[in-house]
């Protein structure tokens, strides 16, 4: 039975966290656009906003599954312990931690077990079509232009995708090949949702140190 055939919620889905106005704008943008970019520095709550938006849409029975992915830098992935699946889950942990903040950990585990949440390795995305799915591509600034095109062209009908981006966190091995510089052209296009988050959700000392050092 597809998620859309299940009993629909009559009220707005409740999560275990509260979003600020910037993060709520990501949720709103998802209802207006099939492709949404949540852009901001470290600690601005991009991933949390993307996860919350995806969970709300899923619980409203608008999609059958949530697909999550992050760019995997080859030297970084190879250095992680375990087999490919173990490496993927280790790399996905920041995303999964946000799911566990939004809902009970055992709920996230059940969704993974039932494949209502699916982990996608971006290196094997060719040939796939994301159907009736809400997708999150976290840390998308570490996709090259080619990898971004491979990812965006997987989007099937009745599916949407949220990319989180941070210019300050582009991996040194990606550098100027990052898709970020190309994607900035979309900001004023009106064809995608583009939300810039500026709040710092982490310790305020981080901002003081980075500002003082000019980082």
Describe this structure in words.
The structure is a single chain. The chain has 215 residues and is α/β, with parallel strands linked by helices. The chain is 38% helix and 14% strand. The chain contains nine helices and six strands; from the N terminus they run H-E-H-E-H-H-H-H-E-E-H-E-H-E-H. It has helices at 21-32, 46-59, 74-79, 84-91, 93-102, 105-113, 145-152, 180-183, 204-213, and strands spanning 35-40, 65-69, 117-119, 133-137, 160-165, 193-197. It has a six-stranded parallel sheet with strand order 3-2-4-5-1-6. Helix 2 crosses helix 5 and helix 5 (93-102) packs across helix 6 (105-113). The longest helix has 14 residues, at 46-59. The protein is globular.
Overview in brief:
The chain is α/β, with parallel strands linked by helices and 215 residues long. It has helices at residues 21-32, 46-59, 74-79, 84-91, 93-102, 105-113, 145-152, 180-183, 204-213; strands at residues 35-40, 65-69, 117-119, 133-137, 160-165, 193-197.
Which helices and strands occur, and which strands form pairs?
Elements: H1 21-32, E1 35-40, H2 46-59, E2 65-69, H3 74-79, H4 84-91, H5 93-102, H6 105-113, E3 117-119, E4 133-137, H7 145-152, E5 160-165, H8 180-183, E6 193-197, H9 204-213
Parallel strand pairs: 1-5, 1-6, 2-3, 2-4, 4-5
Helix pairs in contact: 1-2, 2-5, 5-6
């Amino acid at each position: 039975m597809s998620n859309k055939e299940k009993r629909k919620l009559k009220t707005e889905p409740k999560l275990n966290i509260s979003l600020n106005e910037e993060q709520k704008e990501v949720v709103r943008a998802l209802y207006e656009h099939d492709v949404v970019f949540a852009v901001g520095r470290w600690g601005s709550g991009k991933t949390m906003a993307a996860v919350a938006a995806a969970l709300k849409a899923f619980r409203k029975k608008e999609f059958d599954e949530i697909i999550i992915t992050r760019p995997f830098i080859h030297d970084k992935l190879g250095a992680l312990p375990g087999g490919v699946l173990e490496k993927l889950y280790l790399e996905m942990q920041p995303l999964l931690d946000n799911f566990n903040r939004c809902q009970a950990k055992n709920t996230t585990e059940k969704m993974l077990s039932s494949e209502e949440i699916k982990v996608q390795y971006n290196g094997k995305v060719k040939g796939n079509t994301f159907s009736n799915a809400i997708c999150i591509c976290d840390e998308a600034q570490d996709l090259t232009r080619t990898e971004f095109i491979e990812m965006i062209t997987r989007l099937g009908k009745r599916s949407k995708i949220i990319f989180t981006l941070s210019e300050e966190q582009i991996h040194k091995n990606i550098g100027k090949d990052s898709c970020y510089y190309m994607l900035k052209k979309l900001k004023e296009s009106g064809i995608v949702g583009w939300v810039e988050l500026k709040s710092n959700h982490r310790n305020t000392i981080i901002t003081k140190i980075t500002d003082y050092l000019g980082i």
